[in-house]
Amino acid sequence: MPRGQIVAGCLAPHPPHLVYAENPEQNEPRSEGGWEQLRWGYERLRESLSKIDHDVLVILSPHWQTYVGTHFLGLDNFKGKSVDPVFPNLFRYTYDLDIDVELSQAIAKEAMEEYNLPCKMMENPDFRVDYGTIVTSHLVNPVFDKPLVVISSNRSRHYYSVEVMQEMMISLGKATKSAIEKSGKKAVILASNSLSHRHFTTESDIPEDMSKEHITSHAMHLWDMRMIDHMVNGRAKDILNEMPEFTEQSIAESDGGGFSWLLSALDEPEYPAILHGYGTIIGTGNAIVEWPAYKHGGVADE
Ligand SMILES: [Fe+2]
Predict the structure, then answer these.
(1) CB atoms within 10 A of CB 267
(2) Does 5-295 carry CATH code 3.40.830.10?
(3) What pLDDT is recorded for position 156?
(4) Where would I find the H helices in the chain?
(5) From the CA of 200, how far away is ligand 1's center (Å)?
(6) Å from CA of 302 to ligand 1 middle
């Protein structure tokens, strides 16, 4: 069997506003559009990924929060209706997700046996999948023709600190990479998180009124631009080193561990990432970024 590989890794944030703005049939509420800068960014990401052969999408979402270990969706299919708890007016989405259980189990096994990370498979057929997973899946692959591996966010940041969270997520990233290589599959891995995450506390009368949309503060803008500068200049190591300050000061969604996991699974890339888009949603900073790993030693020749 040829060695598997991570062919690309992406920062793929999940604000439900982006699905709402596109009016897909799965989502009940209707909109007049909005957040086009980010939606065009996702169009560019989809176009780019369409040219990269891959079998599976692997997602880590900060909204599936587990306090004892890391969990993985462990059944072939999950169906249901997802209502965003904060924005039920924008997101009431009927989902139908196919899971690559074999690869999910392989990553969990690798993480447990090689890195001593407690892991568990979610095998309750009525489990309600979190909206972060659903929104990122929809925006990256709206036709849902690839199976998913869905990984929970172990809240070690809340129980301990950003440093402990990051150490565990770096291990989980290495386990993810190694299990994918052993699987023979080509995977795109997705960290489903925003950057700065200080948001407005009220919504405008028309949610998609773009005259009301901007970053919440200059400090948040500076942090987002600093992180983007690191990404597009191949400085993953600097991002990991600055993660504690970034996460604390910009209330970033990197607290869920996805960003650290992604950079670790990509081997702390020193090559430039592609910035497909940046924009704000209710004041939070969101970047759509791709690391084209297949061009940089991610491809196995055997
Ligand atoms: Fe979120």
Answers:
(1) 18
(2) yes
(3) 85
(4) 16-22, 36-49, 101-115, 131-140, 156-159, 162-183, 218-232, 236-249, 258-265
(5) 14
(6) 39
Cα(182) to centroid of ligand 1, in Å?
32
- Which pLDDT tens digit goes with each residue over 103-119? 999 999 999 999 999 99
Helices 258-265 & 162-183 angle (0-180, nearest 10): 40
Give me ligand 1 centre to Cα 84, in Å.
Answer: 10
What distance in angstroms lies between residue 131's CA and the mean position of ligand 1's atoms? Answer: 8
Rounded distance from Cα 172 to ligand 1 centre (Å): 21
What is the residue extent of each domain of the chain?
Answer: 5-295
User: Sorting pLDDT into bands at 50, 70 and 90, what band is 301?
Assistant: very low
3-state secondary structure 33-78: CCCHHHHHHHHHHHHHHCCCCCCEEEEEEEEEEECCCEEEECCCEE
> 34 CA to middle of ligand 1, Å?
18
pLDDT in tens, 22-36: 999 999 999 999 999
* Tokens 């690869």, residue located: 103
Residue 4 C-alpha to ligand 1 middle, in angstroms? Answer: 30
70-115 per-position pLDDT tens digit? 999 999 999 999 999 999 999 999 999 999 999 999 999 999 999 9
174: its two tokens? 């290495």
Closest CA to 239 of 264, 206, 202, 275: 264
Q: What H or E segment, with its residue span, contains residue 275?
A: strand 274-281
Q: Is the pTM of this model over 0.70?
A: yes
107-126 burial by CB neighbour count: b if 16+ within 10 A, else e?
bbebbbeebebebeebeeee
Q: Which residue in this structure is represented by tokens 């055997």?
A: 302
Assign 299 a pLDDT band (cuts: 50, 70, 90). very low
Helix (H) or strand (E) holding 251: none
